[in-house]
Every structure is written in structure tokens, then in C-alpha cells.
Amino acid sequence: MASAESPSSNAKQSSRNVQHVILGTLRFQTWYQSIYPEDLVSKDTDTLYVCRWCFRYACDVNTHAGHIKVCQHRTAPPGTKLYDQGGYSVWEVDGANHKLFGQNLSLFAKLFLDHKSVFFDVVSFLYYILVFADPNDPDGSYHILGFFSKEKLSWDANNLACILVFPPYQHKQLGKLLMGVSYKISGWERDPSLIGGPERPLSEMGGRSYGRFWEERMARYLVSLQASNANANSTGEPEDVKTQKSTSTKASARKKHPHELMTVQEIGLATGMLTEDVITSLRGLGVFEPATPSKTRKKPHAGSGSGSGESEAIVIRRSKVLEWAKTRNVNLRDPVRGDSFCLSPLEVRTMESPGSDDDD
């Protein structure tokens, strides 16, 4: 799986058939070689002109300018809008319905992805493109900032195959937005008993990007969980046995902090994260401590484990999570707003037209 971040300077020195691209009005350097047809793009191309709406490419500026005037996607992206918030939107594009768009996007993306291998077999993939439209732009134009792709049928329940935020738009938290949308979509689509994640193995940059994303996702969940437990406890409504009331007046005078007993598997189900990703994020947070014997009582739960041996119990305090977020200047607000989704993916499947863009 490829990452949404720039590689090291050494990686940029690798052999490239295209040195620079012009996407819209932006000119920037490529990072890797892509397999553009050699009869259209020579091995020593300095500048490749790429349509910012459909990713059609040309080495000749006049050919490119002629296409821009008639591009069928100049007024709206292909596919169906899935998410819309503050000028940013995510559109789902079915590779079967928009083969040429998927192929051109994949060829362009390879200029910035080291391990991308799917270029022409796009029928089995869905593409989720991140679009920005400036509401103050009198032309009503839009920009595609990045995308992620996923297989329609993944035996490993992967919710993402590759992800890329285009270089001019990186370091703006847009990768986290795309990752969050991928988990939201997989939460709609998956069997509740099946948990997925990004395609493995992760690249070095992908591991760093997802490590940060998982840590923030886990911190957000832990804070919201413990806050809801505290609110429930303050109402005096004993929802379950998180805390027990003592008949002793002296004991009842001592305020007990509400807490929840959960397994790693239960946290995974609640967050949509694989067990190993939950463990990775908890270790990355570094906010847990060994549980005292009084907090390690067993909690019966079907399917919570194999039952062989006892798992190590830990305690995670809300104050420690909040301190972690403060010291790293992390905003625990979810980058993906649930009320900003226009349609669920299942609705999108039934509404998108089966037309093709191969003839434009």
C-alpha cells in the first residue's frame, strides 16, 4: 500500500521517465517512473501536461489546451458525490463505468507512488476522489486533490488499496480525511463480525501515516467512551456494573471513577480497527499502565478470545489521553463528520449510471 506523503530525497533521485507535470496551473516535480505508453510519452519527457479533471495527458501544450476546452468532466467530477463538507467533497467513481478515468488517474498516481501496480485492470476497483470547490470562485470550477482506491471484493476485507494526496496539497490533514472516509465506508459495508484495514504490507511512509491516524482515532474513541461513562454515572442511572454502590456510608463517601472493562477485540469492533492495529495504536499512545488486581476481574464475553491463557489487563486514564493530545497539539475532533455524507455506499451502487467515459 502506498502512502500520501512525500518520499526521501534519495527516493526522488530514482530514474524517472517524466521529470515534471503540469496539473491545471501547477507545475511540480515527479518522484517515480510511470508506465505511460512510450509512443505517447517518451522516456526523457521534461514536462507532461495533465488535465486536472480527467487526467488525460499530453506532451504538447496545444494538444492539452484543445482537450481542456472540451473535457466532459470540466463542470463536475465523474461518479457520485458521497461526502460534502466545507468545500471539500468525496466522490465515488466505479472503475467499470469510468475505465479511462481510472486508468489515467492510476498512471498519474504512479508518478508519486513507489509500489502501485494496478494501472489498466480498473474494473474491479472503486476510486474515491477528494475534490475542493471554492464557493467564491465565479467560474464554479473544482480541483481534485487526491484519492484512495479499494477493491470491490477483497478476501482480506481491506478497506483501502492505495492512497495519495497530490504533492501540492500535502501536509494539510487531507490524508486523515481520506483514511477516515475509508473506515466510515467499510463500517457501512462490512459484516459486523469482519474487520478490515489498509492493504498490507504497508510501505514505510504508509506505516507512519497510518500509525498517526490510528493513534488519533484511538485517542478520540477512548476520550468519548470515558466521557459518556462519566456522564452516565453522574445521572445516577446504573446502566451496568461499571461501578458498584456500597452499603457502607463511609465507603459511599469515597467517589469512585467510572470505568469500562473491554477487550482489545471489543475496541476493534467499536472502532472498525483490526486487533493488531488497536494494539499498535495503544502502544503508540503510551498512556496505559498495568491494572491493579481489583480491576482485572473477568468479564464474560462470547467470542472475546480463544479462551486459552489470560490476557494482560491494562488501565487507560482519560487524563493521560488528553495530556497526550495536548503535548502533541492533536485536535481530537473527528475529521469526518457523519452528517456530511450525502448517500451511503449502498445507495450509490444503485444510483450511479452504467455509462462510460471511454468515448469522450
Overview of this structure, please?
The protein contains 10 helices and 11 strands. The protein is of the alpha+beta class and 360 residues long. It folds into 2 domains: 9-203 and 341-351, Aminopeptidase; 207-233 and 258-334, Arc Repressor Mutant, subunit A (Orthogonal Bundle), CATH 1.10.10. The strands form 3 sheets. It has a 5-stranded antiparallel β-sheet with strand order 5-6-7-8-9, sandwiched between helices. Strand 3 and strand 4 (57-58) form a beta hairpin. Helix 5 (204-234) packs across helix 8, helix 5 packs across helix 9 and helix 7 (264-271) crosses helix 8 (275-285). The protein is elongated, with a radius of gyration of 24 Å. Belongs to the MYST (SAS/MOZ) family.
Order of neighbouring strands in the sheet with most strands: 5-6-7-8-9
**What's the β-strand tally?**
11
Q: How many alpha or pi helices?
A: 10
Low-confidence segments, ≥5 residues, pLDDT <50? 235-253, 300-309
Overall geometry comes to elongated
Average pLDDT: 82
- CATH top level label of the largest domain: Alpha Beta
Structural class: alpha+beta
Helix content class: 25-40%
Largest sheet: 5 strands, antiparallel
In CATH, the architecture of the largest domain is 3-Layer(aba) Sandwich
**CATH homologous superfamily label of the largest domain:** Gcn5-related N-acetyltransferase (GNAT)
CATH fold category name of the largest domain: Aminopeptidase
